[in-house]
Specification:
Elements lengths: L7 E7 L5 H12 L4 E6 L6 H11 L3 E5 L5 H14 L5 E4 L11 H9 L4 E5 L6 E3 L3 H18 L11 E4 H6 L11 H12 L4 E5 L1 E3 L11 H43 L3
Parallel strand pairs: 1-2, 1-4, 2-3, 5-8, 6-9
Antiparallel strand pairs: 4-7, 5-7
Helix pairs in contact: 5-8
């Protein structure tokens, strides 16, 4: 009997990842020989795109999507999602090119998809999850940011900024990909938030996140300023909507009880 994970696409965005790309693709293919890999390259000046083409020529499970310029992580994933949705993939995954997401743990996400989950997030901040080789300051920034996001938006997810994810195609078909925010890395939060609001089955599995050993991180200080500002705006709107819904429910109950009272006493 076939499973959703039998038709899985792993999307790996790249920008100047020449040294990391052959390492991560070989690990993906060794640990998960049945999945396909889509490399989305943003015209890397170091030749990553050419290296991706060479890998694709040698392995019919590897594909390449070239973009004209450095359009950001959100744009790369959106392009990758559209590419996958145009084909018959039932599960589409996000994975970093730098080795921070262990391909050897991908099965943990896919097992939950096969168990009925709609979105599975590889989490650093649930029991069993961990971060390796991060400076204390960066860990505190990430941990504190996720705590703030959880308090602002609710939903019960501990690692809303995590980028190791597996989606059922129906989730991505539901989302308006063109409307997602591209402020910092906030699109990861927005996607999870929108999916939770739509009552999809969202789960977390523990992963080990390992800081890159080759190259430089693309994350900068704009994440804090831009991303948390967006979260605050969504949080205020979300709480207002909750309050409005509460008032509507209470008002409806009150009208119902008044009608019952009048009918009982023939008022």
């Amino acid at each position: 009997m076939s499973k959703p994970s039998d038709a899985t696409l792993v999307i790996i965005p790249t920008y100047n990842e020449l040294e990391n790309l052959p390492l991560i693709t070989s690990r993906v293919r060794e640990a998960n020989p049945e999945v396909d890999v889509l490399i989305v390259d943003d015209n890397s000046p170091d030749g990553t795109g050419d290296a991706a083409d060479s890998l694709a020529e040698q392995d019919d499970h590897i594909f390449v999507l070239h973009r004209e310029g450095k359009g950001g992580l959100c744009g790369a994933y959106m392009a990758g999602f559209r590419w996958g949705l145009e084909r018959d993939y039932q599960v589409l995954c996000e994975m970093d090119a730098d080795g921070s997401h262990a391909p050897e743990q991908l099965h943990l996400l896919l097992e939950q998809i096969d168990d009925g989950a709609d979105l599975v997030i590889g989490s650093r901040y649930i029991p069993g999850g961990e971060v390796v080789n991060w400076p204390k300051q960066r860990w505190l920034l990430s941990k504190g940011g996720n705590l703030y996001i959880s308090l602002a938006l609710g939903g019960g997810i501990k690692d809303m900024t995590a980028g190791y994810r597996a989606f059922r195609r129906q989730v991505l078909e539901y989302l308006d990909l063109d409307a997602l925010s591209n402020a910092g890395y906030i699109f990861q939060v927005e996607v999870a938030f929108r999916v939770i609001q739509a009552d999809f089955d969202v789960r977390e599995v523990p992963i080990t996140f390992t800081e890159r050993e080759i190259g430089e991180s693309k994350l900068d200080g704009s994440f804090v300023k831009d991303s948390l500002a967006e979260v605050t705006k969504w949080g205020v709107q979300h709480r207002a909507e909750q309050a409005q819904h509460f008032v509507q429910v209470v008002g409806g109950l009150a009208k119902h009880e008044i009608a019952r009272f009048r009918k009982k006493w023939m008022i």
